[in-house]
Amino acid sequence: MSDDRPIPPSEYEMTRERLARGALLHALRANPPAGITVRSDAELDRTLRATLDRHDRGQDLHVFGYGSLMWNPALDVADTFVARVDGWHRRFCLRLIIARGTPEQPGAMLALDRGGACNGVLYRIDAAKVEAELRLLWRREMLAGSYDPRWIAATAGGRKIRALTFVVNRTHDRYLGGASLDHVAHLIRTGSGPLGTSRAYFDATVQTLERLGLRDAGIERLRRAIRDADAAGGGA
User: What confidence tens digit (pLDDT) does each residue in 146-169 have?
Assistant: First the structure.
């Protein structure tokens, strides 16, 4: 049931403490924004169990991050590596209507989409902590059905490592599969919500890739489109 009170910006912040409390989960369930369907505890548990059933519980687990997980994992990790995955690429392909966007001022959010390759960050989680850490991750990535968990092969330090990541759900109504580069640039330039702007999220992605010494051709094309729109003074 909605009480019509706005969700405080702090509840969107991805810290371990807030994820452990389920702050965003509870806030969204109390007052879901228009266009957002929040998964039940049973649905979250079912998808988590299905993922864990494909993992050896006596082994460490690796998580591949390509967006905000690169600069704010909020996970208890044992090790961190730069890694590459083939068959998937980083793409701003989800319309964003919470946190850094609203239904009135939507932004754009990253996901992995099919094809190409992606460089990012691989995190190793100790076997004893896997379930607890994934529960936090599920409260961050799996609330609204726009992502699907996927086991992939990542390459780090010259070796292949089985890893968990989150790819776009192409059947979701917020998937921007057919959107033009200029439209996505517009969403990034104008999207704004209680946590801040979509542009700030994009800039953090660019800065993190530069810090890690990684190049992403798709992000560079989008960066040029945003810069050109800024120069033209287009509809911010």
Answer: 999 999 999 999 999 999 999 999
Residue 192 backbone zone (phi > 0: left; psi -120 to 50: alpha; other: beta): beta
Catalytic residues: 141
Per residue in 12-30, is it b (16+ CB within 10 Å) or e — as a string? bbbeeebbeebbbbebbbe
Cα 183 versus chain centre, distance: 20
DSSP alpha helices (H): ranges in 191-216? 198-212
Closest among 91, 108, 74, 89 to 186, alpha carbons compared: 108
Helices (H) and strands (E) in the chain — how many of each? 8, 7
In terms of Cα–Cα distance, which of 150, 149, 118 is closest to 219?
A: 118
pTM of the model as a whole: 0.91
What are the φ/ψ torsions at residue 89 (nearest 5 degrees)?
A: -130, 155
C-alpha distance from residue 69 to each of 72, 88, 95, 152, 221 (Å): 5, 17, 19, 17, 22
Hey, is 198 helix, strand or coil? helix
